[in-house]
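Give me the fold.
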Amino acid sequence: MKRPHIVLFNPDQWRGDVLGHMGNRAAVTPNLDRLVAGEAVSFRNAFCQNPVCTPSRCSFMSGWYPHVRGHRTMYHMMQPDEPVLLKTLKDAGYFVWWGGKNDLVPAKNGFAAYCDIKYAPERNPRPSFGGDLRRGLPGSDTYYSFYVGKIALEEEEPFYYDSDWANILGAIEFIKQAPKDQPLCLYLPILYPHPPYAVEEPWYSRIDRSVLPKRIAAHELRGDKPSMLSGLRERYNMQGWTEERWTELRATYYGMCARVDHQFGLLVEALKEAGIYDDTALFFFSDHGDFTGDYGLVEKTQNTFEDCLTRVPFIVKPPASAGVKPGIRDALAELVDLPATVHDYAGIVPDYTHFGKSLAPVVAGEADEHRDAVFCEGGRLHGEFHCNESAPANADPSMLYWPRGEMQRSEGPEHTKAAMIRTKRYKYVRRLYETDELYDLERDPGETENRIGDSSLAHVLLSLKERMLDFYQTTCDVVPHARDAREK
């Protein structure tokens, strides 16, 4: 069979609800909206398997959950003997071009096993986020806010040339001169809309502040909630922010998403101009979401599982040779389904055990449901100091990430190991050192009331616990496909 080209377009920290075609009137995503209207499927209920960068990437590149081989911190990456989708494609004859961040494999091992080109732009990009984080003085309510706002442009400058723009433009140039005798894989793990919240014009002003969805405020929370959340609120020192200030932060994040949508549109046009668009399987997905003001918080956590962190965009356009019924699907999906779906379209039979399920039947309209539940996990055990993620980037109070770093270093309950199971209606979170969580998402989509002690939901809780036990039993290990000879 003729193998399709593969594009993995992977923005960082994009919430699953910031999409125009999902009904969000404030989201400016015309290119994604057009794609879903005519040629692709967007999964409304797609979820990551860990709410921070490296564990999520290890998961969606392998089809393994973070617990399978201990990939549950920012500092435990994929090792040479472990399966990575990029390597699988390269070994299958794909020419793999990688332009963007890593957060996947140890740089000391090099990238030759995973790609033919690890792109480095000839022109040095400018500092990310405008190069000025505008934090204010230590102790101020802006010091840990991650808020920057509008990035200034030089006169006649069409956009702010940072690493994302460098990688997008590099990918477009590669498409123009790519090998004609090989199937291609483009992997674009770009930085935006990861905070700090900063964007240039025209995207800064494109967002209609008046139609932003209502923010989930901290005062709405009832019942036992994870101490990670209250601890971060205390350290961020943003409790005095007015709703107007939160609106500007949120609008800037939406503007960052709008910029990424525009860049995505440029890439699609390049594929069409090169005459390879129809033969391309295109995947648009993020590694995790962002608080963006919900619960009075910014950025993300590593062991809480609110939908704003765990639900992500996941859009699939298959090659023309495969079936598609365009539109939105409500089926539950996980990012571990990415490699399985790529394998399916590319005709690859993997030589290792993974836990993804191909989305191709749902994309083609041949199936309505995909999974009965989705899972996410994070945190650590007491004494697992190698998992507390302390690093120079968060160890000093002058560092932007100090609040989360300080919480994750704690030997109290804050960074407890935890796991989430979510069905379409309910979410249960088992927390090792804290009160568990249970939410009826139909009545409480914002997860504001923890009903773990509600006797009327006892039967629901039991069924979710049983399902989580099944999940761990079926995914607790991977046995190598090659068997050892039992010789004397």
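The longest strand covers residues 327-334.
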